[in-house]
Design a protein that fits this description.
This protein is an alpha/beta fold. The chain contains 13 helices and 7 strands. Helix 9 links the parallel strand 3 and strand 4. It starts with 6 loop residues before the first helix and ends in a 9-residue tail after the last strand.
């Protein structure tokens, strides 16, 4: 996905936010911001996708501040907050008799989890209010709702490659994986990042929330880049993508990196996300703050990896 002019202030804002999470030293914060501003014009000339822009912000911050994981504390807090909500959601899930409705409920909870972003310009989220507002969030509609179509696909295509996004959010992805396995008989391979980048989930978060209880396999991208960049991912990821029947792609970063490549992937891709910026909203044809389950069907395989 190509960057928009709106990606410029978003990237600079992200740089300030990440820098302040990494260090309280104003001189280091200044150095990080100036380095980002030096690099940004060339990145835009090269049509660098938004997910790469923010990934590079993280790398610049990590290098200058000497902090590997600026979001470590907030990721742990996100996981703990989500885990408090998880048992009641499991009870609701178990009470839903219709399999499609159960899937829709679980995807909606995972979309609420996708609201856990802390550096998207113009997106405001309060972790401390998540539990009290969760029922209200569940009442919000899916502006794009391809759950029925996804159900049709997974009724006959059982190997799911599930691309996770943020820490905390993966607690609700755990519920979605539980639904896919128990109600639909799917095998689920969950993918997290190979290293810290923003608040994206890593193997440390996987262990924290017991994600393996709901999945057949957990792998990483082999990379610490937001989204999926095929030139950087591991051979293990490439093989898992090749072996899968359906890809479920969570969040904006994965959408930004996969948009336009669905035909090359050669199998259905289902985007599940909260739209947190106007650029992604325009790409999907929906307003900001929309909840989306969008299935893209392509079955003619053209080699991507």
């Amino acid at each position: 996905m190509k960057p928009s002019l709106l990606c410029i202030p978003c990237t600079v804002n992200a740089a300030l936010d990440v820098a302040l999470k990494a260090t309280s030293d104003p001189d280091l914060v200044r150095e990080i911001l100036l380095e980002v501003l030096r690099w940004l014009p060339t990145a835009f000339e090269e049509d660098t996708p938004p997910n790469i822009l923010h990934s590079q912000v993280c790398r610049i911050t990590q290098k200058i501040a000497g902090v590997r994981d600026p979001f470590k504390h907030i990721k742990a807090l996100s996981n703990e907050t989500a885990l408090k909500i998880y048992p009641s959601l499991c009870e609701t899930f178990e009470s839903i008799k219709d399999d499609v409705e159960a899937l829709r409920f679980c995807l909606k909870t995972s979309i609420i989890g996708n609201m856990m972003d802390f550096e998207v310009h113009g997106h405001h989220f309060s972790l401390k209010n998540l539990e009290s507002r969760f029922k209200d969030y569940l009442k919000e509609p899916l502006v794009i709702d391809d759950t029925d179509k996804l159900g049709e696909e997974i009724s006959r295509r059982k190997k799911i490659l599930y691309l996770a996004d943020n820490a905390g959010e993966i607690v609700f992805d755990k519920l979605a994986a539980k639904c896919l396995k128990e109600r639909w008989g799917c095998g689920v391979t969950m993918v997290v990042k190979g290293g810290p980048v923003l608040n994206d989930a890593t193997l440390e978060d996987v262990e924290h929330i017991g994600l393996g209880e709901a999945c057949d396999k957990i792998i990483t991208t082999g990379d610490d880049t937001i989204g999926i960049v095929m030139s950087r991912v591991s051979e293990e990821f490439k093989q898992a993508l090749k072996d899968s029947d359906i890809v479920i792609s969570k969040g904006q970063g994965n959408l930004e990196s996969l948009t336009g490549l669905e035909k090359n992937i050669g199998k259905p891709v289902c985007y599940v996300l909260r739209v947190k910026c106007e650029v992604v909203g325009r790409n999907l044809g929906v307003p900001k703050d929309s909840n989306v389950v969008k299935l893209i069907r392509f079955h003619n395989f053209q080699k991507l990896y």
